[in-house]
Amino acid sequence: MLCNLLSSNKEYSLLKINGHGELVVEDLKTSIILSVKAYTSTKDNAIAVYKEYIQFLKTKYKIDVELEFPPIPISIEFERIMFIAKYLQDPNHKIEELYNMLWVGKDTIDDDIKKLRGMTDNPIQVCGKKFVIEDSKRRNGRVMMSSTAHPVLLTSNLTQIIVTLKGLRLMSKDSAFRSYSIEMAKSIWIQLSEYAKKRILFVLSDLLPDEVQWYISLENDIDNSFLSEKMCSNTEGAGCVLDCLKNQKKCFIEYQEEDGSINIYSDCTVEKYLGATMRILSGSQKIELNLDNILRSSYTIEELI
Length: 305
Description:
By secondary structure, this protein is of the alpha+beta class. Helices cover 42% and strands 16% of the residues. It folds into 4 domains: 2-61, no CATH class; 77-145; 158-216, no CATH class; 233-304, SH3 type barrels (Roll). The chain has a 5-stranded antiparallel β-sheet with strand order 8-7-6-5-9. A two-stranded antiparallel sheet has the order 1-2.
C-alpha cells in the first residue's frame, strides 16, 4: 500500500498528483489531501501512512509539514455522522467546510447528511434506535435544525447511572422540565443491559421502594433516539414554556388564578423562568405566573380546546 500511495501510477498516488521536482510544502499539503480523497480503500490507512511520511520528512530532511488531519476516523460512517451532527449545530458552519475538514468526497458527506435527516431507508442506529433529525432543512449550504441534536454516549458505572436517573426524576417534578427529564431518562434507560436494569430495581426496592415504579415506567418503544424541543413539549402544565422561552416562540397558557377562576393568556412571550414562577408578556401586560397554577400550555389555542 505504501508504494501505491506514494509513487505508483494510480490516480491517488502522491507522485502522480504532486509531480516531480522541488518539494514545495504548501503544494505537498494540498496533494496529500487530494490523494486521501481519491484513495479507494480505507482512507484512515492512507492517513496513517501520510502521518508517518510527514514525520519522516521532518526527521530525515528537516522539512516541517504542518498539516491538520481529520479529527475523527473518517472511514467509520457512525463517527462521521456524529461529527457532522455536532459541527452543523452552529448556523454559521457550512456543509462545504466538511469536505476539506474530513477529507472525503462531496457525495459521501451528502449521503451522510441524508441519513442524518432521515432521507434514506437505512438511517444510522444508536442502541437499536434510529438517530434522525427529522425537522431540518438544507438551505444556502447549511443544515437548519429546529432543534440541535447533541449526541452524548457515556460509559458510566451503575452508581453514576442511578445518581443521574435520580436527578432526572427530581427534575421531572417541575412541570416545565417534566417531559424533558423523563425523555432523557428514557434515552438512558433503553441503553442499559437487562442486567443493569435488574440491579437498579433491586437496589431501589430496598433503599427507595416508592421510586421503583417510576424507573419501570421508563421502558418505551419510541423509534427515534432524538426528540426535538417540540417533540419533548406537551400541553400538560408548563410543558411547552421552556421551548418558547429558549426559542422565542409564542404560546397560550391556561391558568388558575388565586381565586379559583380560570383564564387563558393568549400570544404569550415567556420573558423569564424564575423557578417556582415565570414572567410572561401577554398583550401589553407583564404578568408573573405561579408554575403550579398553570393547568395547560400550548403553541396554538386549538390545542387547549
